Amino acid sequence: MPDFHAFIDKINFFNKINIDEKTKKILQMFSIFFGIIIGMTVILVTMTLLSRTSWKNGLAIEMQTVLDKYEESQYTVGKNLPVNSNLSTSSAVYSLLKKNAKSSEKYYGIIVRMPSILGPVPAVFIYTEKNKISEVKFAGYALDNGKAVDTIKLQSMSNIMNYWEKMIPQIIAKTEVN
Question: Strands of 133-141's sheet, edge to edge?
């Protein structure tokens, strides 16, 4: 053990500074504390960055589930399109492929965290661009069937729904495709 303590004393930065022992101990404790905080932050940021792909894939699966139940169930969810806006925390945009669609027609699926009586719920919209004319359709909520769905469906005609239908073209305009 004397070799270990000698090694620690040799590499210890605080032994090279002319300060008293009590101050050295306090500085060592603060250094250890902030080292732990920085280490935890690095771990959290790394885990967040690694889980992004999984999160985007999960949203695509939820959107596909809603689109399969939609009356025009002809859509297939494509790739995620990054949104360059503050709204990216409340929405995600995906390209959609539609059966028998012309190449000039563009389809996008938008999943939005929309406020409701029961808290935030994921709503799926379809944005269509044909001959420079845009159209927004509400496809449904990405919720499990239950009592909450009926309550939230009553909200479909509210001002919140109108707000998001007006915001969808602005969100699409801020994607990296445009």
Answer: 75-81, 91-98, 106-114, 121-130, 133-141
